[in-house]
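for the record, two folds in this file. i put them one after another cuz i was lazy. first one right below, seq on top, structure tokens after. the second one comes after a little note so u can tell where it starts
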Amino acid sequence: MSFKFRKTFELAVSKLSRIFKSSTVLNSPSTTKSISSRNDAQSAMRSFLENHKSVQFLGKSVGELKRASSLKLEDYVGRCSLLYDSITGRDTVRKAGISVLEAERAFVDCQLNRRRCQQKLFEVQKKRAEINKQLDIISRAADSFIPLITKEHEYAIEEAKLAEEYSEADRLERAAYEKFGSNLRYLHAEERNYDKRMRQWALIGSVALSVLSAAITWFRLRVRAVDPVKFENGLESVNKLVSISEEIQKSVNAIPQEVVRICFQSPSFQSRVMVPSPSPASVPLSIPVPSEGWSTKHLLVSAVAGYLLLRFLLG
């Protein structure tokens, strides 16, 4: 079937392309001949689309495909709706509502039947009361007494029959009313259960979303955490900087002593200052001697540590 459809589709496409080519070749807007040729091409194309079997088959196939896809979509939506109703309990509420409507309809029918039986019984009782009045007036020796007695007997039989039907209709009406009331109470109970279940599902959903958001946040923080290898490399670089800063501090501390030694070795300085030998205690006051608590090391270490901490916080 697919091979046949492909062949017909290719045939239709080839014929349409030939028609389009002929229409474009003959299409020249400057002459009336081009206009007539264009009209002929359009009419030929229209007749081809209307009468050719391949195009008709292609149109039918497209229509069937659309119908099949729409049916599948409706089926899928219906299944999803049934699954949602079964999970939330909405199908039970719907069934209870349908049973309530059916019970209400049955109760209304029983009520109408009971009213009809009651109306018939009232009419028969009224006729029998009129006959009884006539029997009280007419003498028993009259010729019309026997027909009246016969009618009164027939009405009595009919009244008894209608009274039995009325009692049965009244019993059915009471039973239908009780069934309607019980179904209505069941519907209200199911609606309350449905509301309770929906609140529970809402609570479960909110808890699940909060847990999921917390897990995602933890995962993001875990991914953005500092790599141990990079952290170790950073510590090594900090240690190197600390050692370099210590060497710099030692060299800076050795500068005043070296200056004093050079000054004392010069003959001009020896002639001015009569000191037998240079010592750290005889350093002039004009030369700044750094104290032992000079915090170059601490400054460098704190700067490097602050830079690494800032990189860690900013990710």
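(here's the note) second protein begins now
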Amino acid sequence: MLDTTHYGIVRQPQVRAVADAVNAESLPVPPPLRTTSRGPA
């Protein structure tokens, strides 16, 4: 988890929203649906 306030990147009230966005981005990404330009794999 990135402590954005520690680095002074953002200030309240944006801290919570930015922290949530950063945490969401750092979550494991589910594998994409297996589709290709030729249709479903």
